[in-house]
């Protein structure tokens, strides 16, 4: 899959966010993260060549299956998502937009992968982030209140022991 971004239409802040996303995606190479294969940067366009998911996203799956997933499959997929997030955090990368739309199925491989690092950022352990971002409906209370927040703690809120 490829994404073409017209850099001419981006202001400086948007351009900085875009290159932050690319830096984070290049850094996070994990079996449960959609792989960024290539970045082609021209004067006017940025081309991102990404791994192609063959099964849609988690949100679509939820909407199509009223009865949901059987428990063993749900556990397997949830474990994969948490492994991806944990790996990101070990590299001091926080995704900041975890939601069903950003988890995609690779049906032939029997797995899910995390995608869309558009709000991702690097963090320093022990230092709080200030930026309010992500999807409102999925935001942690700290972000909604405009408080500074510990990036890994907010990303895994509430915490689950797998």
Automatic annotation (TrEMBL):
Keyword Kinase: yes
Record-linked SMART domains: S_TKc (SM00220)
Gene Ontology terms: cellular component: cytoplasm
Residue intervals of the Protein kinase domain: 1-162
Keyword entries, A-Z: ATP-binding, Kinase, Nucleotide-binding, Transferase
Record's signal peptide: none
Record GO terms (molecular function): ATP binding; protein serine/threonine kinase activity
InterPro entries per UniProt: Kinase-like_dom_sf (IPR011009), Prot_kinase_dom (IPR000719), Ser/Thr_kinase_AS (IPR008271)
One Pfam entry name: Pkinase
GO biological process: intracellular signal transduction
PROSITE patterns for this protein: PROTEIN_KINASE_DOM, PROTEIN_KINASE_ST
Entry protein name: SNF-related serine/threonine-protein kinase
Organism: Armadillidium nasatum
Lineage: Eukaryota, Metazoa, Ecdysozoa, Arthropoda, Crustacea
Gene name tied to this protein: SNRK
């Amino acid at each position: 899959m490829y994404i073409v971004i017209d850099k001419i239409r981006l202001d400086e802040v948007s351009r900085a966010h875009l290159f932050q996303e690319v830096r984070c995606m290049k850094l996070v190479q994990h079996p449960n993260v959609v792989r960024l294969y290539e970045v082609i940067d021209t004067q006017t366009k940025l081309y991102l060549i990404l791994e192609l998911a063959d099964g849609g996203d988690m949100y679509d799956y939820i909407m199509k299956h009223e009865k949901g997933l059987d428990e063993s499959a749900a556990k397997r997929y949830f474990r994969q998502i948490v492994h991806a997030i944990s790996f990101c955090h070990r590299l001091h990368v926080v995704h900041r937009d975890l939601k069903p739309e950003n988890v995609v199925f690779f049906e032939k491989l029997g797995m899910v992968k995390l995608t869309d690092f558009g709000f991702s950022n690097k963090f320093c352990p022990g230092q709080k982030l200030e930026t309010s971002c992500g999807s409102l409906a999925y935001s942690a209370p700290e972000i909604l209140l405009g408080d500074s927040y510990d990036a890994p703690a907010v990303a895994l809120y509430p915490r689950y022991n797998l």
